Amino acid sequence: MAKQEDQFKKVISHAKEYGYIFQSSEIYDGLSAVYDYAQNGVELKKNIRDYWWKAMVQMHENIVGIDAAILMHPTTWKASGHVDAFNDPLIDNKDSKKRYRADVLVEDYCAKIEGKIDKEVAKAEKRFGDAFNKEEFLATNGRVLGYQEKINTILSRLGKSLENEDLADVKALIEELEIADPLTGSKNWTDVKQFNLMFGTKLGASAENAMDLYLRPETAQGIFVNFLNVQKTGRMKIPFGIAQTGKAFRNEIVARQFIFRMREFEQMEMQFFIKPGTQKEWFKYWKETRLKWHLSLGMGEDNYRFHDHEKLAHYADAATDIEFKFPFGFKELEGIHSRTNFDLKQHEEFSGKKLQYFDHEENASYTPYVLETSIGLDRMFLAVFSNALVEEELENNTTRTVLKLPAVLAPFKAAVLPLVKKDGLPEVARKIVEDLKWDFNVAYDEKDAVGRRYRRQDANGTPFCITVDHDTLEDNTVTIRHRDTMEQKRVKIDELRDIIKQEVDVRSWLMKMEA
Ligand code: ATP
């Protein structure tokens, strides 16, 4: 646990030191759970967004994008259910005065039991060596099965109580499990209450005429209210999708995991409109497709798992999360929800407008069902960044800090370094930058010894360093050094573009989804 916490602290300080993420309004002591993306962070974030957009929109003939406004007519949120049901169960500790999400306290308790299962697995792995079969072990070991049953019982009771709004039972569960305040150990809890997560604001100049609005808590509704506009003007035929990326706002009760849970964050969502009755097969299709997208980035198959929901949201008939192994354990990175026709029906009812599709093949109109994939861009950023940050022991007994970002996402693809700041080397290096910058984001760095510059670029995640030395002046060759292998090669300046392209090209990364 301590090791995990250390790693997480390193992630946060590295993100600041290397210009990825700053606390919002830091000079005023910051604003809780609000962050700014800095000069490198903004590039990494944009590259993740582009990678998603390319795969989701541009590679699918039947998926188009929109960019809806953050402010929407307030009735939207009555129709969607957010005014009445977008609540989290909160609980206060009477001694520490700290506030928690009651469901998260219970889930964290289960995560601890899961940690015990992991320990059993590690022990058995050691004992059995190569003969160890993890799946068989998980399915047969008595102790593991006991732990698993305990988790299932707790989560299924939590799911039922939340669904029935039986908050007294959620409190009873916390007390029965003897869950203590993680910060102080106190078990002196208040009752569980519901808390609405939407931020309110006002539209209009004078107080008496002002209209109460909400900052959108999800981007999805901007898609639903535009369903017919896009379908008609884009002449879209079912099945088809509408995608969007943009800010969403939630007044989160507990927000202390850096950019994992923020009050202002960005979502990348796609709503896929389908024929009623086909939702099971599309649910399966999008589960597989989205996992392939994640795996194409090469961040380790073992770092992902599906978590099917016990507790379904009011609009869903099936739901799963793609969880990622963050420095603080497996947590939700993306949600895939079978939303039925709930949203379109609700908007039909509240607006009085028909939101139906005429199916020429069936010669009938119907309200489409919807399959949603929804991923937090900031959570994806944290997954990529925390997974990439490693400290490596080198042969000469020194260590180096490397940010092994997938090259396709790295803010800078290459840094060009003149060996010394004289003899015309900076001029040649600048010329290389001028040429490469048409295709890639490239940096120029001439300060400090070249070894320190390599380290700086390693820590910044730059896949290639290109060094210009005196031989360059003679034969137009440079040294190109690879971030991960540290291998250096002598190549012609003319070859640089192709070498870099091979490694950073979106095409070759996304192609892995086809494999
Ligand atoms: P959680 O259970 O962690 O609160 P959620 O199930 O409410 O998340 P969804 O409403 O399904 O989340 O939103 C889709 C995605 O948006 C999530 O998978 C997550 O990546 C992202 N997301 C949701 N809330 C936040 C937040 N406060 N900060 C950052 N990202 C978020």
UniProtKB/TrEMBL annotation:
One example GO MF annotation: bis(5'-nucleosyl)-tetraphosphatase (asymmetrical) activity
Gene3D superfamilies: 3.30.40.230, Anticodon-binding domain, Bira Bifunctional Protein, Domain 2
Location (main, coarse): cytoplasm
Classification via InterPro entries: aa-tRNA-synt_IIb (IPR002314), aa-tRNA-synth_II (IPR006195), aa-tRNA-synth_II/BPL/LPL (IPR045864), Anticodon-bd (IPR004154), Anticodon-bd_dom_sf (IPR036621), Gly-tRNA_synthase/POLG2 (IPR027031), Gly_tRNA_ligase_bac (IPR022961), GlyRS-like_core (IPR033731)
GO biological process terms, semicolon-separated: diadenosine tetraphosphate biosynthetic process; glycyl-tRNA aminoacylation
This protein's GO CC annotations: cytoplasm; extracellular exosome; microvesicle
CDD domains: GlyRS-like_core, GlyRS_anticodon
Domain Aminoacyl-transfer RNA synthetases class-II family profile: 136-418
Keywords, in A-Z order: Aminoacyl-tRNA synthetase, ATP-binding, Cytoplasm, Ligase, Nucleotide-binding, Protein biosynthesis
EC identifiers of the protein: 6.1.1.14
UniProt binding sites for ATP: 250-252, 260-265, 332-333, 376-379
Cellular localisation: Cytoplasm
Binding site residues for substrate: 101, 218, 265-269, 372-376
NCBIfam families tied to this protein: glyS_dimeric, PRK04173.1
Subunit structure: Homodimer.
Described purpose of this protein according to its UniProt entry: Catalyzes the attachment of glycine to tRNA(Gly).
Family: Belongs to the class-II aminoacyl-tRNA synthetase family.
Protein name: Glycine--tRNA ligase
